[in-house]
Amino acid sequence: MSVEAREARQPWILLSPALSAVGLLLFVPLGFILVYSFWLRTASGADQVGFYLDNWRAALSDPFYRDILLNTLKIAAITTGICALMGYPAAYFIARARGNKAILLLLLMLPFWISYIIRTMSWINILGVSGALNSAMLWLGIVDTPVQMLYNEPSVILGLVHFLLPFMILNVFVSLEGIDTNLEAAANSLGATRWQSFVQVTLPLSLPGLAAGGLLCFVLGAGTYITPMVLGGPSNAMFANLVYEAIITQLNWPLGSALSLMLLAVLGALVLIYNRYLGMAQLMKGLG
Amino acid sequence: MSSVKLTNIVKRFGTFTAVHRTSLEIPEGAFVTLLGPSGCGKTTTLRMIAGLLDPSEGEIGIGGKRMNDVPIHKRNLGLVFQNYALFPHKTVAENVAFGLKYRDVSKADIARRVNDALDLVQLPQVGDRYPKALSGGQQQRIALARAIVIEPDVLLLDEPLSALDANLREDMRVELKRIQDRIGVTTVFVTHDQSEALAMSDQIVVMSDGRVEQVGPPEEVYNTPASEFVANFLGASNILSARCTERTGDSVVLEVPLFGRLAIPVAKAPNLTREGPAKLVLRAEKLHVAPRGRPADGVVSIDATIETVDYQGQAVRYFLRVGDTQLQAINMIDERPFAEGAEIALHVRPQDCAALPEG
């Protein structure tokens, strides 16, 4: 075999373990799901094998699904915005901290040691009718009867922010870490105040991190079903709850498959649009 | 353009003292180099002048005004870093124009001054490009243009040539000096490279371990080092234990084990005020390797053996052995150097030696 042929093969050999894992664990199951989505669930409870468009017709035409999809995207967008506003200052603080960065990062990772479900349920003990906040307010005499703070949209968003904030902070932190601190010093020496040099230099250079963190928060937020299930009320269902409902509760795998592919398509399209118009690649180019 | 005055400044980081009590005056328009090995406090001193660090004690004055409490963005300084620190998301022209946006300069004037600055650094065509598209040397020229376009009171250069490769570094050295001469701005230059310091400076401030070892024009620092550290740091020196036996009006007599009695001009031993133990400083390029034979008048000669020859083209460095002592000599050569193992004579003129007090 020629040297060129060997060199051309090398990347594929090195990639093959990862490619086979992705292929077997992601694309093959996705293929099954796609096939399932064209089957039909009959009244008897058995799946009828074939090529039926009924599930897709229902998923695409029923305003019930459309409204929940739009609501899901709205909640994910609000959550992402809050994460960006809360996460950027925190990331900036960690990136500029002297000495104890490792401890701050450890504190940031600490919540991941506890199950996401447990972390979500912890809000019940804080905000619930007999939770910490209500007990404190009753004791202080601020309210006479407990206030219901859970099972609404804000509590779902709160839970999502709690879950997603570390992802935002880490992404922004990494991009801030990559910015030479001399750049701000140079801007200051040229007459820019600290705020001006932040706006002119640091913020634009950290946008790729903010964009990556934002995308991650949005996609993870839009795909979750645990948070709305634990902290949301009946009217706060998100799209993934519908999939859960169809597959686990109703055992309607074909419909659940169609719905999950629909969510995948919408989020995939958003990622592509995001890449194209927010120009992450373009931003990266400037950084060489 | 302004003078810079440091009065009793000290910089401590926790329990570590980076700069011990130092006072320094830099006259208007001067090119002053802070020279020393890494960790000597030179960059810390520069960053205090810039306002990037606050001195723990003492006063920093620029143009006769106390600057301690003036934030960096109001000091009107030009700052150039070793790693260029150009804004990667802005074009070259936007980089150079950056400082002008914070001054009352009209748009037309900004464009004109940016062009003038790019002309001055001989890169008039690159305004639309991004820094990453330029070579290291070009990026450093842009960084210089960005710093001088605001007409700073003081230009602060933090090892600006260190990231460039050797040939480019020498070109940039000449270029930088030309630009500084032309605009006449007071310049503080930080480097660990002695040849840069010697070539460019009006005054050299040699620093070691957070202390100033010597301040003086290049020739003085080079020819009459004030300490063993300076003698070793600038060029190659042989330092021999000696004994000062006599001081007359214009010369100092040293007893040196290898060379016997040497009478050195007082000007070459300004700090040697007492008789007793002393150090003789013999510059490697003042030691001449010659065939054995009668030396000329006024030349001290000893016999030596060549151990190693380090051939460098127009010059050669010899490592020589005299008894138990190893010496080095750097000589210009016309043709071929002496061979290793050759038995030769070593010539030195007493007026080329310098002397320091012991310790």
Protein architecture, described:
The complex is a heterodimer of chains A (288) and B (359). Chain A is mainly α and 288 residues long. Chain A has one domain (52-286): MetI-like (MetI-like fold, Orthogonal Bundle), CATH 1.10.3720.10. Chain A has helices at residues 3-36, 54-61, 63-96, 101-109, 116-127, 132-140, 153-177, 181-189, 194-222, 226-231, 239-249, 253-277, 280-286, and strands at residues 40-41, 47-48. A two-stranded antiparallel ribbon of chain A has the order 1-2. In chain A, strand 1 (40-41) and strand 2 (47-48) form a beta hairpin. In chain A, helix 3 packs antiparallel against helix 9, helix 5 packs across helix 7 (153-177) and helix 11 (239-249) runs antiparallel to helix 12. The radius of gyration of chain A is 24 Å and the shape is flat. The two termini of chain A are 36 Å apart. The relative contact order of chain A is 0.12. The mean pLDDT of chain A is 91. With 359 residues, chain B is α+β, with helices and mostly antiparallel strands. Chain B has two domains: 4-223, Rossmann fold; 236-357, OB fold (Dihydrolipoamide Acetyltransferase, E2P). Helices cover 23% and strands 37% of the residues of chain B. Chain B has eight helices and 20 strands. Chain B has helices at 42-50, 92-101, 107-120, 136-148, 166-183, 194-200, 218-223, 228-233; strands at residues 4-13, 16-26, 31-35, 57-62, 65-66, 77-80, 154-158, 186-191, 203-208, 211-216, 237-247, 251-256, 260-265, 276-283, 288-290, 300-311, 315-322, 325-332, 343-348, 354-357. In chain B, the strands form four sheets. Chain B has a six-stranded mixed β-sheet with strand order 6-7-8-3-9-10, with helices on both faces. In chain B, strands 13-12-11-14-20 form a five-stranded antiparallel β-sheet. In chain B, strands 15-19-16-17-18 form a five-stranded antiparallel β-sheet, with no helix packed on it. The mean pLDDT of chain B is 92. The chains are: A mainly alpha (288), B alpha+beta (359). At the A-B interface, helix 8 and helix 9 of A face strand 6, helix 2 and helix 4 of B.
